[in-house]
Amino acid sequence: MVVASKLVAPPRKDPCGYVEGVKEAIQQWKIGCIIPIHEEGFCLAESKDPEILQKLYAPPWEVLIRLHSKWEYAKMARGIGLGVPEFHLCSSMDDVRRLDPLKEWAVKPVFGRANTNVHHLRPGKGIPTISINEDCQYIAQEWIYGNRYCSYSIFDRGILRVHSAYPVLETIDGSSCVYFEACHHARIREYVELLAAHLYPLHGQIGLDFVETTESLVTIDCNPRATSGIHLWSGTPYLARVLTGRLKEDVITPPHTSQGREVRREVIPGMLMWEHKHVTLERYLKHVWRLVSARDIIWNWSDLMPSLASPFLLTYLYTLCRWRKLTLPDLFQWDLIWEPQKESLEKIKMLEKTMD
User: Looking at the whole model, is its pTM more than 0.85?
Assistant: First the structure.
């Protein structure tokens, strides 16, 4: 239950002001644990402030960079024998033009997220002009077709405490999930544990995006933060107990229904705005079934106000979209996105030299 809140500076525009706001909240409410929900965790970890670092449920800044950088993550994963698509670093358009023209490629920012600025290059098609330079590098990943999955896990100083996996079935933009159906996938869990073992003692939340083919299981992205998989525990106290050290079970997975089925959750506004290009009747009926059979992450009979306020909030968000000339998915994360500035880029370049 939320008992108090505090207005702080947006970390994207004023990271120092945001850090100071968090420190004030720590002192005001005697906060014992800081749990990042998005990339504001990068600002907190980069601050190197002892008062924040000792309470921050996240890895050190250097580990965050290694996982968040698509280039460094791909090199690391390949180096320890984990599956990743073929990849190349692009520091200019000349690097893009040198890619194998007979293959499909996903060209995206090294420090990007979701579908933002992702370019799908196809054989025989023209190459778009992309704003690439030494300070804004891109990575080219071979485009892999297969079944898509996501994982969400929490590690407590190297020990896996929370784990889930779910297929990508319904999205708002081809990437951002709005429907969550837990599944058991042993290979995904093994992949997550092998990655964490290499980073021991990993501490914090981590989400991976997978593509599975008949021959391989590869990751196409890594998010060292909270991801949508957290919704699989919506309406339960288990994650809060893990994060505060009050749950002693070895590893918790998403709860099951009273009938023993895997839990299903949805974001109803997102399900109503689902991506439905070239939809068939069968696909439409499947979407409708998921919409009416899953439980909304917000709806709660004992607290109706958040659900009743959702239409008004959505109207306000669309107004902000027009003001800022952003799409709705981009707006949701706009103020929390971490984009390395000149000083951070210099530290990253020095860090990359130590990794090579």
Answer: yes
